[in-house]
């Protein structure tokens, strides 16, 4: 992957609005990449972020369980000494969407946390994304590298 050396990690945050978990033989056949078809989808809305030109933006992230460890390409971010794995490409096309392949243990941990915390009143799951970019703003139609995805459970104050 040939990307410029001056990439910065832009940070975006959102709360998960909804999630779905499904098993689909059709998906497993469609992707033909030794994925089991197990799928977990989270949705949310990123609000008032300068990188998105302060436009509220819907986001959908689909996690696809892989039977083996996915081979994530590496990129170099400005100021970092080690290369950073690219989890997926994420595209802005009026909304943000991506698919991330993860191994079974990562998938199960995410699914378990969502099932345990998502429906508790007063608890919000906040996702933090790191996007590699050499620009101050994300342009419509542009795909960028997703290099960070963290989530934390937060309670109402």
Describe this structure in words.
By secondary structure, the chain is mainly beta. Helices cover 13% and strands 50% of the residues. The protein has 2 helices and 9 strands. The protein has helices spanning 25-31, 104-117; strands at 8-23, 35-46, 57-66, 74-75, 84-85, 88-92, 96-103, 123-133, 143-155. The strands form 2 sheets. It has a 7-stranded mixed beta barrel with strand order 1-2-3-7-6-9-8.
Radius of gyration equals 16 Å
Q: What is the typical, i.e. mean, pLDDT?
A: 85
| Residues in helices, as a percent range | 10-25%
Principal-axes geometry comes out as globular
Which class do the helix and strand fractions yield?
mainly beta
Separate helix tally: 2
Please indicate the percent range of residues in DSSP E strands (runs of 2 or more).
over 45%
Question: How is this fold's topology laid out?
Answer:
Blueprint: E1 8-23, H1 25-31, E2 35-46, E3 57-66, E4 74-75, E5 84-85, E6 88-92, E7 96-103, H2 104-117, E8 123-133, E9 143-155
Parallel strand pairs: 3-7
Antiparallel strand pairs: 1-2, 1-8, 2-3, 4-5, 6-7, 6-9, 8-9
């Amino acid at each position: 992957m040939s990307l410029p050396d001056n990439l910065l990690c832009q940070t975006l945050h959102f709360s998960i609005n909804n999630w779905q978990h499904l098993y689909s033989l059709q998906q497993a056949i469609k992707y033909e990449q030794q994925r089991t078809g197990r799928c977990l989808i989270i949705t949310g809305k990123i609000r008032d972020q300068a990188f998105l030109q302060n436009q509220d933006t819907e986001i959908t992230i689909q996690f696809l369980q892989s039977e083996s460890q996915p081979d994530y390409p590496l990129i170099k971010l400005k100021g970092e000494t080690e290369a950073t794995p690219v989890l997926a490409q994420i595209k802005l096309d009026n909304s943000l969407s991506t698919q991330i392949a993860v191994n079974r243990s990562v998938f199960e941990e995410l699914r378990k946390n969502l099932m345990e915390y998502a429906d508790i009143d007063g608890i919000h799951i906040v996702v933090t994304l790191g996007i590699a970019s050499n620009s101050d703003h994300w342009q419509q139609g542009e795909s960028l590298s997703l290099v960070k995805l963290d989530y934390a459970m937060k309670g109402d104050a």
